Every structure is written in structure tokens, then in C-alpha cells.
Amino acid sequence: MHPEVLLSAGTDVAAVADVLDRIGLDAIVDVHTHFMPKRVMDKVWAYFDGVGPLVGRPWPIEYRLDEAERVQRLREFGVSAFTSLVYPHKPDMAEWLNSWATRFAAQVPECLHTATFYPEPSAPSYVGRAIEAGARVFKSHIQVGDYPPTDPLLEPVWALLEEKQIPTVIHAGSGPAPGRHTGPQPVAEILRRHPQLRLIIAHLGLPEYREFIDLAQRYPGVYLDTTMVFTDFTEQRDPFPPDLRPALGELSDKVLFGSDFPNIPYPYQHALESIVALGLGDQWCRKVFGDNARALFGPISALSGD
Questions:
Q1: Which end of the chain is more exposed for a tag (fewer CB within 10 A), N or C?
Q2: Where is the Amidohydrolase-related domain (predicted)?
């Protein structure tokens, strides 16, 4: 690594430590980070490299590092537990991703064992096997997967996840670009059928913040992750309505910190600073940055050392 990169990394880490010190924390939990097979990550980065015309601005990858460096950077940031959110965009891909994620979690003790699924006949079987292998969180990406979450092939998957009370991080909001099946209504239908299902709404449902917050208020198992919300990058196009801030305070036990690391177009500490700047208090921030995730996921090794 070149000396200038080392200096940049040191400055980056110090900036995160400063934010955490101000609110009385030395460790956090990040429920929305991406680790995936290299050829898949390369394709994800290529997508963001070319997404500018679609979202109306460039999307530079701030942490375009190799896998080991990315893990180390999160450790240096004080992230004591994080996810490896993988997601398929076609059939016969999810089980392969799950196998990779199982190996990754075994090699990286801070990783919260992650799995995924796709609407296909084999989904209930491989989801069951992933759970038996130790999966503690699933990922559903409605936009990229281009499938309705209400697909009948997923009905037994949702039923199993509801039974086992395993959370799913679901990207169902219509940002940064709408998909054929994005939006709050399909998620509301899933919850009508499975009212005890645990769903973590990625990006606070951006831009349908209001509708997804309503679901979190109505259903006990619905949580919200903060991924990219409140940052300058997101506020320019999809600002969070100021009148909804009190609702976030009322949902203080159901808001989880997520970053979208490494695929963010700004330094990591900016996500932290943007949440602190909401003015909802240090105790609220400490819940968001770790306590709520620990309560949700329970006493697993990656979280128990905080």
C-alpha cells in the first residue's frame, strides 16, 4: 500500500473514532454491508460506475479495496459486527451465494452469517439448509432481483423465516431508481400474511419513507435501517421529511445503523455524523449504532464482545 493511502486510511479511522467518542461509544454494529464473491462485487462496482445517468449524478465507490482491506477497515472503524449482504439477480444463483457467505462468515468472526433467496422452486430447501448452517440474517433485493416479494414461490420462505424469527434486510423502496416491483404495497401484503415476520427495511424505504415508517409502527417485527439516509448525497435528491423525525424518536428501539459499505460515495464517518446531526440525542444514537442490533440478533459471538 502506498504511504498516501495509509495516511488517508489513518485520517478516515480517526474521523470515525471522533464521532463515536462524542456519543460515548467505542464499537458499533453495521447491519448493511456488502461482501460477496469477487466477480460479483466487480459487477456491482461496474454498475455504480455507470449508474450516473440513471440517478442523475456520479456514484464513486469510496472503499474500492480488496476484500481483506475492507474487513480490516471496518475493524479499524470499531465495527464489531457486520453483514455480508449477498443477493441474486437470476435463478440458480442464490444457493451458490449462500455457500460463499457461509465460508466467509466462518473466516471472519465479526461477520453476521448472511444468506439470500430468489423465487424458485428450490428456495425453501436451500433457505432451510442455510438456516441449519447458521444463517442469522437474509437479504432480499427487490429492485435488483426484479421479482415481486409476493411471488407464490416465496410463500414457504416467508413462512419459514417468520417461524424461525430470522430477520431479512429487504430493499423494497423505489430508490435510487424504481423497479417493477418496488414500493411499500407488496411488503404490506407480505406482512398481512405473516404479521410476525422480521423485516429490516433497507434505506428506511427511500424514497417512500412515510409508508415504510408506518409499517414499522404497525408491525412488531419491522425495523428500519439508516443506510445512506440523511447524508448529503441522499438529501440532495430524496430528503428525509423533517416532520418524520419525531417518529424516528418514537421508534428508538427499531432503528438500526447501516452504511452500504463499501459501495458508498463518501467517507464512512459522514453516515455517522449525519445520524448524530438529527439531534435525537446520544442515547438514541447509541441504540441505533449497536444496542438495537444486539437486542434483535441475540447473544452471538460477533456481538457478545461489545
A1: N
A2: 29-298
Cβ-contact 203, 175 below 8 angstroms = yes
Pairing of strands 199-201, 168-171: parallel
Per residue in 1-49, pLDDT (tens digit) is 433 344 478 899 999 999 999 999 999 999 999 999 999 999 999 999 9
Report how far residue 21's alpha carbon sits from residue 25's, in angstroms, rounded to the nearest whole number: 6
Based on the structure, what is the number of domains in the chain? 1
End-to-end CA distance of the chain: 30
3-class SS of residue 46:
helix
Q: What is the spatial distance between Cα 187 and Cα 149, in angstroms, rounded to a whole number?
A: 7
What Cα–Cα distance (Å) separates residue 72 from each residue in 66, 110, 300?
A: 10, 11, 20
CATH at residue 252: 3.20.20.140
C-alpha cell at 38: 469477487
Distance CA 262, CA 36 (A): 11
Residue 305 lies in a domain: no
Question: Is residue 201 one of the residues assigned to a domain?
Answer: yes
pLDDT digits (tens, 9 = 90+) for 203-215: 999 999 999 999 9
- The verdict on residue 303 lying in a domain is no
Regions of the chain with pLDDT less than 70: 1-7, 299-306
Give CA–CA dist 115/102, Å, rounded.
8
| pTM for this prediction | 0.95
